[in-house]
Amino acid sequence: MESNQANPSILCSPEGSQRTLYPYVTGTSVVALKYKDGILMAADMGGSYGSTLRYKSVERMKPIGKHSLLGASGEISDFQELLKYLDELVLYDNMWDDGNSLGPKEIHNYLTRVMYNRRNKFNPLWNSLVLGGVKNGEKYLGMVSMIGVNFEDNHVATGFGNHLARPILRDEWREDLSFEEGVKLLEKCMRVLLYRDRSAVNKLQIAKITGEGITISQPYSLKTFWGFSAFQNPTAGAEGSW
Amino acid sequence: MTKQHANWSPYDNNGGSVVAIAGADYCVIAADTRMSTGYSILTRGYSKISKLADKAFMASSGFQADVKALQKHLTAKHLIYQHQHNKQMSCPAMAQLLSNTLYYKRFFPYYAFNVLGGLDTEGKGCVFTYDAVGSYERVGYSAQGSGSTLIMPFLDNQLKSPSPLLLPAVDAVTPLSEGEAIDLVKTVFASATERDIYTGDRLEIYVLNAHGTHHEYMELRKD
């Protein structure tokens, strides 16, 4: 218990300390919901370097063990580092060979502790994480933030998704959503994000986790319509002096 | 080049209001279930009340991650206490433990605002109210969190607690009946929800008395 007090020296020495004070390459929103048979999650594949779209094929959803699916927004490198911790955790758990395995509840709790522990060291992992899973017929969907704030809900979304997608989800989400309806609802959310979130790109994946297993779709695009007159001629009625 | 990004902070305020009222033979502990960050709602169904012992319930607002860590710490301490003493911790003992736990992190505080409600060893209602670094006081009623500035003066007006300066000391428990206290709690939360954007969605109420613990919910405005 002696190391959890703040060390003032790390707060004011930029040289000689390696800490994330701001992110470099970031991913935008992740949206996920519970449906009849499990969890559906969607994320696009963009990796932004500030406002530059630097990477276009970043996988931001990964399976963790047999029962969990992790989606991340925020710093991509921190997410990939976190995946290394989780791979080791699942591997070591598997080596007991006792027939037990980590479920989504355990993984979510682990992520909570890692994120909160790193914020206590003033060295955060710069991510918002979404964890979904199914184990023993029980659906699980939760979120963890950069500083360790965590909760469960029937539908979650990170970043811009919390502003633009969740109001749609609150309107249209039902416990007994079918797979087709779930995908349609996620696509509706992703389309809104594509139109209004400048760092969203039209290349996304949808992941599914049920009692049967985990499947992550091949990348695909959404159909969009940019023919609205306000899009085509945005300065109509507000012309400049030259 | 000038700084473009916002500075990172290890703290957040996730909002919410908590209230506890002590009566002669009961205690009411209540909190809303909204959790927010900035102007966004994170979830509408998050419980801010934690059962620390059979007769000690803690309701907390502030920074959710710190509150979670605090609850986990106290629950672990209480488990050790049960193994060592083969009984449940009393509410006044838990109150002292909570104070010490908060003060232990005096220079990197838990950003948590708590009220602890329960029954003392005589079965009398008790409420303890705290600041983030562990100052605490036994009172007859208290409100903490984002809506406390709206709720506390209303409770003062309705409950007219005797001054703590009186000599000899006068008991601070409220004169209301259990049913009246529950209705008052429902009223103050419905009112706070009207003006405090961080309070709303649902109200969770625990009532402790000689018969045991009763748990109920009331819907609040969701806008």
UniProtKB/TrEMBL annotation, chain A:
The keyword Thylakoid does not apply. One of its GO terms (biological process) is proteolysis involved in protein catabolic process. PROSITE patterns: PROTEASOME_BETA_1, PROTEASOME_BETA_2. Non-catalytic component of the proteasome. Belongs to the peptidase T1B family. Component of the 20S core complex of the 26S proteasome. The 26S proteasome is composed of a core protease (CP), known as the 20S proteasome, capped at one or both ends by the 19S regulatory particle (RP/PA700). The 20S proteasome core is composed of 28 subunits that are arranged in four stacked rings, resulting in a barrel-shaped structure. The two end rings are each formed by seven alpha subunits, and the two central rings are each formed by seven beta subunits. The catalytic chamber with the active sites is on the inside of the barrel. This is Proteasome subunit beta. It comes from Rosa chinensis (China rose).
Automatic annotation (TrEMBL), chain B:
This is Proteasome subunit beta. PANTHER family: METALLOPROTEASE TLDD, PROTEASOME SUBUNIT BETA TYPE-1. Belongs to the peptidase T1B family. One of its GO terms (cellular component) is cytoplasm. GO terms for molecular function: hydrolase activity. Its main location: cytoplasm. Component of the proteasome, a multicatalytic proteinase complex which is characterized by its ability to cleave peptides with Arg, Phe, Tyr, Leu, and Glu adjacent to the leaving group at neutral or slightly basic pH. The proteasome has an ATP-dependent proteolytic activity. InterPro entries: Ntn_hydrolases_N (IPR029055), Proteasome_bsu_CS (IPR016050), Proteasome_sua/b (IPR001353), Proteasome_suB-type (IPR023333). Component of the 20S core complex of the 26S proteasome. The 26S proteasome is composed of a core protease (CP), known as the 20S proteasome, capped at one or both ends by the 19S regulatory particle (RP/PA700). The 20S proteasome core is composed of 28 subunits that are arranged in four stacked rings, resulting in a barrel-shaped structure. The two end rings are each formed by seven alpha subunits, and the two central rings are each formed by seven beta subunits. The catalytic chamber with the active sites is on the inside of the barrel. Keywords: Cytoplasm, Hydrolase, Nucleus, Proteasome. Pfam families: Proteasome. GO terms for biological process: proteolysis involved in protein catabolic process. It is found in: Cytoplasm; Nucleus.
